[in-house]
Write a structure and sequence with these properties.
This protein has helices spanning 12-19, 100-109, 127-134, 138-141, 206-211, and strands spanning 23-26, 29-39, 66-71, 74-80, 87-94, 151-154, 163-166, 182-185, 202-204. With 217 residues, it is of the alpha+beta class. The protein has a single domain (5-159), classed as Roll (3-methyladenine DNA Glycosylase, Chain A).
C-alpha cells in the first residue's frame, strides 16, 4: 500500500520511526528503509534553522514534500513533516527486497569510484548511495509531492522488532549534536551508514521507542 499524504502530516520523530521498514520504489527499483534521522526547525542541526530560502522551501511546505540537496556534491533525500521546517532524512536503505534484475540495475547506477560494483548489502548504506541506487537527482524531485513524481513509499506490513536510537551523524559541536534523533532497524544494523559506538545507543521495541521519546513529540 502506498503511504497517503497524511502519514507525513505528523511529528517528524514519529515519521522517522515509522518509515523504518517501508520501501522506496521508483521505476521498478526497490529499497527497504533501514535508517532515518529527524530534524526540527528549532534544532540547530537542521537546514531549516538557517532560515527560509528558495532552496530550502520544501522544508516549509506540506508534510510529504520531497526535499533534496547535495551532500558533498551528491544527492540526499528527505521528506517534510508536520510543522514548518521539520523533516526526515533517509539515511540508508537495504536492497535485500529487490529482485535480481532490479539489483543489477542499481549496482550499475551506483558503482564505486573505481567502477567496481559495490557489495549488494552495502549498496545503499548512506544517504547519497540511496539516491544514486534509485537514479534520483535533485532537480527532478526537490520541492515536489510524491504524487507528482515517480517515487513512491510503500508499506508492505513489515515492522522492525527492535529499533536502535542514537545521535545523528555529521552534526558539528554546538549544533545540537547530542540529540538522539537517529533511528536504525536493529535487524539491518550491519547495513546502516555506520555502527554507533558501543554504549552510545539504546535498543528498544517500537512502542518503547515512541514512549521514551514523548518529551520530543
Amino acid at each position: 500500500m502506498m503511504l497517503p499524504p497524511e502519514f507525513f502530516h505528523r511529528n517528524a520523530m514519529l515519521v522517522a520511526i515509522e518509515l523504518l521498514g517501508k520501501f522506496l520504489v521508483r521505476d521498478g527499483l526497490k529499497l527497504r528503509i533501514i535508517e532515518t534521522e529527524c530534524y526540527f526547525l528549532t534544532d540547530k542541526g537542521s537546514h531549516a534553522s538557517l532560515g527560509y530560502t528558495e532552496k530550502r522551501k520544501a522544508l516549509f511546505m506540506d508534510g510529504g514534500t520531497i526535499y533534496m540537496y547535495y551532500a558533498r556534491g551528491k544527492p540526499s533525500l528527505n521528506f517534510s513533516a508536520e510543522g514548518e521546517g521539520n523533516a526526515v532524512l533517509i539515511k540508508s536503505a537495504s536492497a535485500d527486497c529487490a529482485d535480481e534484475k532490479a539489483l543489477q540495475r542499481m549496482l550499475k547506477l551506483n558503482p564505486m569510484p573505481d567502477g567496481r560494483f559495490r557489495k549488494p548489502e552495502r549498496l545503499a548504506s548512506g544517504q547519497t548511495l540511496v539516491c544514486r541506487s534509485l537514479g534520483m537527482d535533485v532537480p527532478d524531485y526537490d520541492a515536489k509531492q510524491m504524487a507528482d513524481t515517480d517515487l513512491r513509499v510503500i508499506d508492505e506490513g513489515y515492522r522492525p522488532e527492535k529499533i536502535i536510537q542514537t545521535v545523528r551523524l555529521g552534526i558539528p559541536d554546538g549544533r545540537d549534536a547530542h540529540l538522539p534523533f537517529r533511528f536504525i532497524d536493529h535487524a539491518f544494523r550491519d547495513r546502516c551508514t555506520a555502527k554507533p559506538p558501543k554504549g552510545a545507543y539504546e535498543v528498544c521495541g517500537y512502542n518503547e521507542t515512541v514512549s521514551k521519546n514523548q518529551k520530543f513529540l
